[in-house]
Amino acid sequence: MTALSEEKVLRVNCPGFGVSSILPLGEAKPLAMYNVIIVNPTSVLHLFDNKSDAVKQIEVLQSDGMTSYRAESDGVIESVATELDLRSQELSQFLKKGGLLVFFLVPPFTINGPNQMMDNYSWLGEWTPDKPSGTNQRNMSATIRGKAIETSADAAQSVWIPYLKQQNVEWSTIIRSENLSEGFVPLANAGPNKCIAGYKSSGPKGGQVVFLPAPYDQAFDGKLKECVERWFAIHSDEATPIPALADLSRSLSSLLSDDEPEAASAVVAAPAPIVEAPVAAVPTPMVEAVLAVAAAPILEAPIAAALVVEPVVQPAMESTPAPVLELPPSACTPNLDFELPAVVPAPHTMPEPKPEFFDHGSNGGGIDVSAQPEAQDLINKMKHGISRPSIPDWCSSFTFEELDGLRQQHFDLNEEIRLAKLKAQDLEIRIETMEDLKNSLLSSQGEELMAACTRVFERLGWTVKNAMGSSAEMWLVDEDKTQAIVRLNFATAQPNRSELAALAESVITYWGAHEVEPKGILVASTWADRAPQDRPDEDFPDSMNDFAKRKNLCLLTTAQLLSMFRDLDVSDTDPKEIRDNILTISGRVMEYEFNKKGTTAVR
């Protein structure tokens, strides 16, 4: 049995047997170089950036029962997004080659930026335990926790039973059965339809993602190591036969078991039925005949008829008993060194019908193995196992400089492609955002215009609240202090002077109620039915400009809001600088203007 090497085990945020590391490049090796990965996903930053200042804040929030952390910018998420995407791709290769990922089922914890979000299950991609939700929320419950663990029928023969049966193992997250992702096999429940542990298989070599109850406790690590080693012993290429051969062996052994002596003896004693085809038409090797038996459905024919392949007796030789090719019991165990039976040439040329291995009695039809996908797949696996013997560990790990160089070139090229794709996706999002905002600010009205203006003011750092008593106004709040009252106006020409008067009245009313005078800002969508180059006059007449200066009111257009958003998106403009300008200017704001063609900005 092959022992599990410590350097082949990666531990992420849960020190123990193996190599402790986090996931960014330069820390852990490429994931395909490990056999087992064990992860305690407290948060996504614990996996990719555990030295970040935000980690301590997250741990405080989690101790208070909080399930999310709000970042001031998207930088926290962007700092790990590239590494996360790369490791997700490596995880796919790791599972395809037969690796084991142990993932503790912790409560979902989300990191929210102004425009992006990420949680501690984002790394898993398609191997998440719960079905995706349209609201970007996990279909998991983390409101309660307990120690009552009911193992499932699938867990009865599982290597994970010793871990689940330990005293004091707790669970902190449940997934209802209807929310489990496709292919998820429950191992333990905390009550009816409340899954707390399970696994998903992946890849042709039987890689698995196993979800165990959380919180992780190092006191249980000895039993965890024991379970992992048992899993590795079963799934290691060197420790067990090829899965297809093992299944075949079990199937035939059950037919020839000591519990059924009569059936076993019938294999030798029963007369063989004649297959109506010349010997030349049945040149199938012994292995394919045996595999056909394992793949075929159980029929009401003698067992010997299903295990014997024999040549046809020509009419002139009917008195001679037909030679019987018997399958010895040793053939039930995979042996890659057996010799294929020789093919007996046919005495004369005859049409070659499709080979038939079974006589079905009542229907008289044969089974075409090639028409059965499962049987054919089993045969292919058998052939692959014969032609490609398992490679020893020392040979797999042996390398040389030129081969490593090719691997590095391949990795670097894939990285460039991946980064280019990420950049293209980012540009698509920014283009779509700017396009939507442009259309709303320059041509929309009502709630859509209100939502677009709100987005710009929030990008500038204000908290936007609905004004009391007016659906056309909003309050801009900073640290619980209302700094400005904004009134929106949609017009197909210049704004009406009454809009400015209504704004001035709102400022006075607020001052009378709170003894604080906020800044008054009139935001107008002027000449909304014309292109900028076709507008016959200024956005605000001189009379409105003079009144605004006397009353300490600010005049802005929606096109200027669009210009502010553009500057924040494409340059290093400080949002505080724009806020201060708006709060100090009275009358028309002369900055943040597009020219008539909308191609450049005048600053």
Folded structure, characterized:
- With 603 residues, this protein is α/β, with parallel strands linked by helices.
- It has 17 helices and 20 strands.
- α8 packs antiparallel against α10 and α12 packs across α13.
- The protein starts with 8 loop residues before the first strand and ends with a strand.
Largest sheet: 9 strands, mixed
Tell the overall outline: elongated
The counted number of beta strands is 20
Total helix count? 17
Q: Average pLDDT value?
A: 78
Question: What structural class do the secondary elements suggest?
Answer: alpha/beta
What's the alpha carbon Rg, rounded to whole Å?
37 Å
Beta-strand residue fraction:
5-15%
Distance between the termini: 74 Å
Fraction in helix:
25-40%
Unreliable parts: 238-246, 248-287, 289-320, 329-344, 354-371, 597-603
